[in-house]
């Protein structure tokens, strides 16, 4: 038996104002999208904004459903929209913002495992990393330089 250690790297920004202007704008798009989330069951609103290499910004938010598993997370709404409208265009950055109607979220809210896997498909295909910035309603912002850093040992299509 051999032990294998996987390292992952994150950057933490104390304030949104420490981010570049471009990323601050992208985060504002994520906040805007978040407020339009349809989250009557969880009261937990998430917004996502993807920046494509052309500069286009694609927004998404969580869409819940009375049949709970039929709902979809903000990140997947955004990435599937990008895939549907701009197939093959490289995704450069993703900003994610979450707000709970039950408590003030001041710590970064990381994307769920299912969304990491969905994003991984696009990162693997485009062969360049997607930088992911995530936060709560206020406070620190975390940055992952790639989906790979958030999902080590990801499953990809190479063995299918
Ligand atoms: N949610 C997202 O939109 N993204 C995530 O990464 C985590 C969870 C949504 C799904 C559901 O509508 C609500 O947040 C509570 O789980």
Name the features.
single chain, alpha+beta, globular, binds tetrahydrodeoxyuridine
Task: Report on this structure.
This protein has 160 residues and is α+β, with helices and mostly antiparallel strands. It has one domain: 3-Layer(aba) Sandwich (Cytidine Deaminase, domain 2), CATH 3.40.140. The mean pLDDT is 98. 32% of the residues are buried. The chain has a six-stranded mixed sheet with strand order 1-6-5-4-2-3. It has four helices and six strands. 28% of the residues lie in helices and 23% in strands. Tetrahydrodeoxyuridine binds at residues 39, 42, 44, 46, 62, 64, 71, 73-75, 111-112, 115. It catalyses: cytidine + H2O + H(+) = uridine + NH4(+); 2'-deoxycytidine + H2O + H(+) = 2'-deoxyuridine + NH4(+). Keywords: Hydrolase, Metal-binding, Zinc.
Structural class: alpha+beta
Helix content: 25-40%
The topology string of helices and strands comes to EHEEHEHEEH
- Terminal CA distance: 27 Å
Percentage beta strand = 15-25%
Shape call? globular
Indicate the CATH class.
Answer: Alpha Beta
Distinct ligands, ions and cofactors found in the model: tetrahydrodeoxyuridine
CA gyration radius, whole angstroms: 16 Å
In CATH, the homologous superfamily goes by the name Cytidine Deaminase, domain 2
Average pLDDT works out at 98
Q: Low-confidence spans: pLDDT under 50, at least 5 residues?
A: none
Number of helices: 4
CATH fold type: Cytidine Deaminase, domain 2
How many domains? The number is: 1
What is the number of strand segments? 6
Largest sheet: 6 strands, mixed
| CATH 2nd-level architecture | 3-Layer(aba) Sandwich
Protein name: Cytidine deaminase
Active site: 75
Enzyme class: hydrolase
EC number: 3.5.4.5
């Amino acid at each position: 038996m051999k032990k294998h250690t996987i390292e992952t790297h994150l950057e933490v920004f104390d304030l949104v104002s420490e981010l570049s202007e471009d990323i601050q704008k992208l985060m504002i798009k994520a906040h805007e999208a978040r407020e339009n989330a349809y989250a009557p069951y969880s009261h937990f609103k998430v917004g996502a904004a993807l920046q494509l290499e052309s500069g286009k910004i694609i927004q998404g938010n969580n869409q819940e459903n009375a049949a709970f598993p039929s709902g979809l997370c903000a990140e997947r709404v955004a990435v599937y929209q990008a895939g549907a409208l701009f197939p093959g265009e490289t995704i450069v950055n993703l900003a994610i913002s979450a707000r709970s109607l039950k408590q003030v979220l001041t710590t970064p809210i990381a994307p769920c495992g299912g969304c990491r896997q969905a994003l991984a498909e696009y990162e693997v295909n485009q062969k360049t990393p997607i930088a992911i910035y995530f936060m709560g309603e206020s406070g620190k912002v975390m940055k992952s330089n790639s989906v790979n850093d958030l999902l080590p040992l990801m499953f990809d299509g190479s063995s299918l």
